[in-house]
């Protein structure tokens, strides 16, 4: 029923395959236990969900959400759950295509009842010289992030 979706949901339906929906607390525990392994071994463990669905919790996105919060700093949209998803196909910055990289994406439900993804926003954009570091990240929904573009929040 794509007609009832907002523009973000339509894009997700075309771009992502979903494996399962998980609570914030469940994904937080996966991140915390994976981080402990990383701190003791120097390698992020691979979490196997079966059927070729494997995840590593090495993205800065998880640190942003579990340290800086799971709500949009601009509009207050509350992150409610994670979907375990993979891109159908995505072109990386280098121009290479990749697929089947599974990861957890955080979502909330907007006032309009539609699902909205929350992202890792750079407070000072990379284009303006902002760092890829936890103190320069904040959680922001895609709608607010799209409005912000390269402004400092």
Short description:
This protein has helices at residues 7-15, 24-41, 60-68, 142-148; strands spanning 16-22, 47-48, 54-55, 81-87, 90-91, 97-98, 102-109, 115-122, 137-141. The chain has 153 residues and is α+β, with helices and mostly antiparallel strands.
Describe the structure.
Helix content is 28%, strand content 28%. The protein is α+β, with helices and mostly antiparallel strands. The strands form three sheets. Strands 1-4-7-8-9 form a five-stranded antiparallel sheet, sandwiched between helices. A two-stranded antiparallel ribbon has the order 2-3. Strand 7 (102-109) and strand 8 (115-122) form a beta hairpin.
**Major beta sheet summary:** 5 strands, antiparallel
Strand content: 25-35%
Low-confidence stretches: none
Please, how many helices?
A: 4
What value does the Rg take, in angstroms? 16 Å
Helix-strand layout with pairing:
Layout (H helix, E strand, L loop, with lengths): L6 H9 E7 L1 H18 L5 E2 L5 E2 L4 H9 L12 E7 L2 E2 L5 E2 L3 E8 L5 E8 L14 E5 H7 L5
Antiparallel strand pairs: 1-4, 2-3, 4-7, 5-6, 7-8, 8-9
């Amino acid at each position: 029923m794509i007609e009832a979706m907002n523009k973000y949901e339509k894009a997700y339906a075309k771009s992502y395959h979903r494996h399962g929906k998980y609570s914030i607390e469940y994904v937080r525990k996966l991140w915390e236990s994976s981080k402990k392994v990383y701190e003791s071994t120097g390698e992020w463990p691979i979490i196997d969900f079966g059927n070729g669905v494997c995840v590593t919790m090495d993205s800065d996105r998880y640190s942003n959400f579990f340290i800086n919060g799971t709500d949009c700093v601009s509009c207050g949209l509350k992150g409610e759950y994670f979907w375990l998803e993979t891109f159908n196909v995505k072109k990386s910055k280098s121009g290479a295509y990749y697929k089947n990289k599974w990861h957890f994406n955080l979502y909330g439900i907007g006032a309009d009842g539609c699902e909205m993804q929350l992202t890792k926003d750079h407070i000072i954009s990379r284009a303006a010289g902002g760092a890829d570091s936890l103190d320069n990240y904040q959680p922001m929904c895609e709608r607010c992030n799209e409005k912000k573009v390269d402004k400092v929040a």
